[in-house]
Amino acid sequence: MIVVRVAEHKEEDGKTQDQLVIGGSEDDGSYTGMYALLVAEQDESIGYRPRILAAPELDTEAVTKSLCVIAGKLRAFVYASCHGCNTMAEAITYRQKFNEREVMLLWPDFIAYNPKSGKNETFPAPAYACGLRAYIDHEQGWHKSLSNVPVKNVLGMSRHVFWSLQAEDSDANSLNNKEITTIIRRNGFRFWGNRTPETNAYIFEVYTRTAQVLADSIAEAQFETIDSPLTPANVKDVISAIRAKLDSLVTAGKLIGAECWYDVVDNSTTDLRQGRVRIRYKYTPVPRWKIWSFTRRLLMNTLNPHLRCWEVPDGCAKTSSLFTLFVDGENEVGKVTSVTLPKLTRKTDSYRGGGMMVR
């Protein structure tokens, strides 16, 4: 975990809390606020690139917007609250301010026990989302959404959210339809939702993270080829290595399919002379199993004569009156005052009648 500490806003400092959280580059070249995350990987005391970002309780609209910019540079993902929203309607209105693919908006927050105060208090959902995301990445992988996974050590939600598994008009579905991830109670408490504010290609959290991980994985794997001789053999080796990596991800179930190739049209003589090689790849991410769709049909066959059967033993005299008679699937309709049945063959011993009275 990489934590950047920021000062608490004071009137005499002349900076707002948002400015302190966002930070930037100082005159001496150092980075402050969230911009310090950009150099974490190059810091010898850290050496890691942050991939899961949040600013719990400080994630105003301005902070979240800036954090999305940082996420784009780091190929990271942001979990942010619908800051200051007390109702579902306010959260939906707040969401309309965003269209970035690198963020998931969450509403409401969690209720949990605070051992310091000895009371149940509100805790920011983005903090739990970051921890859960890291856990899922480790246990299952980046292709698994954080939705519908139990969140530990929470007692409730800060706002009521109506949810029922088959209720299409529930609060949870309304929030999901507006690209907001909410919280439900079902065998514990869970995040419920997968979407980002992006409504075109990268609509799901895992779509964005898949693109990020692939871009980094492919680039990192070919780091050693930088500044090596640019020969046809070396280019073929790079393509083979990328294909092998993509195939392994498909086999692991983290991609549905993927291809990689060298296109002559993309690589002009001028570019090749400058040492620039462009390699194309395409892939299909693993979509979310978002909705079960069951087609319901009202079936009255339980009242159908074909399902009501009486076996007529050989030699047993039985009569029937005022009925519609089905014999071996043939419909014989008529008002019959009385009919004697025992003379039928063994093949037609089974009588099926709608409302038939056999005496």
UniProtKB/TrEMBL annotation:
Chain ranges of the Tail sheath protein C-terminal domain: 200-291
Source domain of life: Bacteria
Organism: Escherichia coli
Name of this chain's protein: Major tail sheath protein FI
Family stated for the protein in its record: Belongs to the myoviridae tail sheath protein family.
Residue span, Tail sheath protein subtilisin-like domain: 46-196
PANTHER family assigned: PHAGE TAIL SHEATH PROTEIN, PTHR35861
Gene, per the UniProt record: fI_2
